[in-house]
Design a protein that fits this description.
Layout (H helix, E strand, L loop, with lengths): L8 H29 L3 H11 L5 E3 H7 L4 H13 L3 E5 L7 E5 L1 H23 L4 H18 L10
Antiparallel strand pairs: 1-3, 2-3
Helix pairs in contact: 1-5, 2-5
Length: 159
């Protein structure tokens, strides 16, 4: 049996800080979006991913990959967003077996109206306390971690 590769003191401190950020950041973003836009962070992210796609539409399988979500969870969220009139779901014109989610005009307006407050919150809790060099380091570190966590680039395409 191999001996465990215990963390060094520096690694342990970095790990605990990373865990604290991953525990605190989602709740902070969720609170702001619920308060200001009436959306959960995941709902906003779904709308944002669709808004960045060609013709503001995206196959549900691609959307599930980009949001790291199961099709089942995504289907429930899409149903809620449909009821709110923010998107529609239809079969792909090129492949009837593929379902497409498309933003409505109201959905586009919701993303456009919600984005400034969300970006301000992201800036406030993440970027305002970092130097430009630290922003580069953060990007590089996250890129390295994603190389292991998401080697197929399902969530982000390499830049």
């Amino acid at each position: 049996m191999t001996e465990p590769r215990w963390l060094t003191d520096d690694e342990r401190e970095a790990w605990l800080r990373l865990m604290a950020v991953t525990m605190l950041l989602p709740g902070r973003l969720e609170t702001q979006l619920k308060r200001d836009a009436g959306l959960s962070h995941f709902e906003y992210y779904v709308l944002a991913m669709i808004s960045e796609s060609t013709e503001r539409s995206l196959a549900l399988s691609e959307l599930a990959a980009r949001t790291n979500s199961s099709l089942s969870r995504l289907s429930h969220v899409i149903a809620r967003l449909e009821v709110q009139g923010l998107l529609t779901r239809c079969a792909s014109p090129s492949d009837g077996r593929t379902s497409i989610a498309q933003l409505t005009e109201a959905g586009w307006a919701k993303v456009v109206g919600s984005a400034p407050g969300h970006v301000e919150e992201v800036r406030s809790v993440v970027f305002d306390s970092l130097t430009p060099g630290q922003v580069s380091q953060l990007s590089e570190i996250c890129g390295s971690l994603l190389g292991t966590l998401d080697p197929d680039h399902r969530l982000l395409r390499p830049s």
